[in-house]
Amino acid sequence: MSSPAPAFDSRPQGVSDERILVLDFGSQYAQLIARRVREQHVYCEIVRHDITAAQVRQHQPCGLILSGGPSSVYEQGAPKCDPRIFELGLPVLGICYGMQLACEVLGGNVASAPAREYGRARCQVRSHDDLFAGVPAETDVWMSHGDQVSRVSDEFEPLAATRSCPIAAVRHRRLPVFGLQFHPEVTHTPLGGTVLRNFLTSVCGCQGTWKLGDFARQTIDQLRERVGSGRVICGLSGGVDSAVTAALLYRAIGPQLSCILVDNGLLRKDEQAAVLAEFTNHFRADLHVVHAEERFLRTLAGITEPQEKRRRIGHAFIECFKEEALRIPDARFLAQGTLYPDVIESGAAPDGPAATIKLHHNVGGLPDQLGFELIEPLRDLFKDEVRRLGLELDLPEELVWRHPFPGPGLAVRCLGEVTRERLDILREADAIVVSEIRSADLYRLTSQVFAVLLPVQSVGVMGDNRTYENAVVIRCVNTDDFMTADWSRLPYDVLAQISTRIINEVRGVNRVCYDISSKPPATIEWE
Ligand code: XMP
After folding, report:
1. Among 37, 184, 173, 69, CA closest to 123
2. Per-residue pLDDT tens for 178-230?
3. Which residue owns the Cα nearest ligand 1 atom 7?
């Protein structure tokens, strides 16, 4: 933490040039496919489904993967690919919709399946060459489809079948084109990694030499080229996403970076000081701190409805940020630490074919309002990839492994009205929760841990006196991707210690509860 700020440097070139393109037909899993490819040490990019064959050639990929998608290939307006991509001589793997499309283009029939198939299925594998090398004759796969390939021409060889899907995998006899009706990218297909690895190595001939450090170097080079002599503003939140974004930019453009930290009064105990210390230890960039506690408390006064709280906080944040950004006159770009889950939960790429799942938090209208060009270097990555990237960039472990904290901060953990007094109670209780989890060496073993203040009083007895005070909930979850989560089985003595300390040390609290709900159906935050 106390190492001197690194000098502004230019990282070496020389990254692996093996790459795979994923053509996105609107699958919720397109990024997961890309991630699984990266896990095999092959660089992977997601491109629009209608990329032309000539454009594909410019990327010089080793192979193409056609993703799944929510449409039916025979529907009007269903997303299609340029049929000439099959004439490039490149290996192609179609997954679900991608397989159906490849078969349709190359002489197969796609129809609504007699029985829709969602979930686990037993798959009989007939051929153990290429894709299925090392896969036993019977294996579990994950299906999620209403349509399937009902017939293929003699040009195709069926490779596998399930009970309700007789053509669950195919290979073209002449072209290096393969199709899988099941999803190899999800963990419910236990040998999916083997199948993908076989495609990458045996079919595409990849060596698997790409590393996350290559991504850092490539991204830094691209950022430097894109920004030129311009100035970039980056919002800091104290979280790993914005820190990694700032670190990439700092490596790319050094003194042309300006960072803004809005202290909205909704931060955790001592957080502003910690962010400042981390920042000054690691960067020599321009930093603007906006002290806006009063403004946020004013706008939240009397508001109890969660979405209204979020709306007001978002609005106040934009105003603060805007005012400060206008003091940085030559800024042209705005950098955000948007990750892939933020993008997909917000309805994926605005021009893409994916279905919207829910509207999320981080992808706001700020750049449009300010007329900035948006820079989102982490947009394709998952949280754990961002953490590994942070380590590659020499960010301190404490920052890299910090649990996520929501943009609206303690306001969405202070149920009911948000006042300074209630925030102070919550802050103290939260600090105890986190410090006890750290003391028990559980911080790295849990994904997110915090306190919630309920708008509920209950009766207690302290000394000889009756009390009527607040209830605090401890929330602690384990999750890989924050889209689903389970409550952490914390040891009783750790829970006991947290409870005792909160009740003894935080004035105004006489009851502590532990939240034992998973997500879904609950969410991680209480609001
Ligand atoms: P939920 O509560 O939806 O949270 O299960 C999933 C993850 O997202 C974080 N979260 C937010 N982050 N703005 C943010 O920047 C928000 O409004 C917000 N709401 C939830 C939450 O902390 C968890 O990590």
Report:
1. 184
2. 999 999 998 889 999 999 999 999 999 999 998 888 889 989 999 999 999 99
3. 482
Instruction: Quote the ligand 1 centre to 404 CA distance (angstroms).
Output: 8
E strand map for 134-292: 138-152, 156-162, 169-172, 177-180, 231-236, 257-263, 286-291
What does the alpha-carbon distance between residue 99 and residue 296 come to, in Å, rounded to a whole number? 52
Mean pLDDT for the stretch of residues 150-164: 90
Ligand 1 mean position to 482 CA, how many Å?
Answer: 8
Lining ligand 1 with CB less than 6 A are: 310, 361-362, 404, 406-408, 448, 482, 519, 523-525
The yes or no reply on domain 19-203 and CATH 2.40.128.590 is no
Among 241, 268, 524, 526, the mutation site with the greatest number of ligand 1 atoms within 8 A of its Cβ is 524
Q: Which atom of ligand 1 is nearest to the CA of 407?
A: 15
What is the per-residue pLDDT for 11?
31
Spacing, Cα 523 to ligand 1 middle (Å)? 9
**pLDDT reading at 280 higher than 80:** yes
Assess whether the region 19-203 and the region 212-400 belong to the same CATH fold. yes
Mutating to test ligand 1, I would choose from 317, 336, 342, 361 the residue with most ligand atoms within 8 A of its C-beta, which is 361
Ordered by start, the domain boundaries in the chain are 19-203, 212-400, 413-514
Fold for 212-400, please state it: Rossmann fold (3.40.50)
Which atom of ligand 1 is least distant from the CA of 519? 5
C-alpha 405: how far from chain center: 14
* Whole-number pLDDT of residue 16: 65
What pLDDT digit, counting tens, does each position of 441-498 carry?
999 999 999 999 999 999 999 888 899 999 999 999 998 778 778 999 999 999 999 9
Protein residue with least CA distance to atom 21, ligand 1: 406
With a pLDDT cut of 90, the percent of the chain lying above it is: 66
Angle at 78 between CA 73 and CA 84, to 5 degrees: 75
For residues 412 and 511, give the distance between their C-alpha atoms in angstroms, rounded to a whole number.
Answer: 20
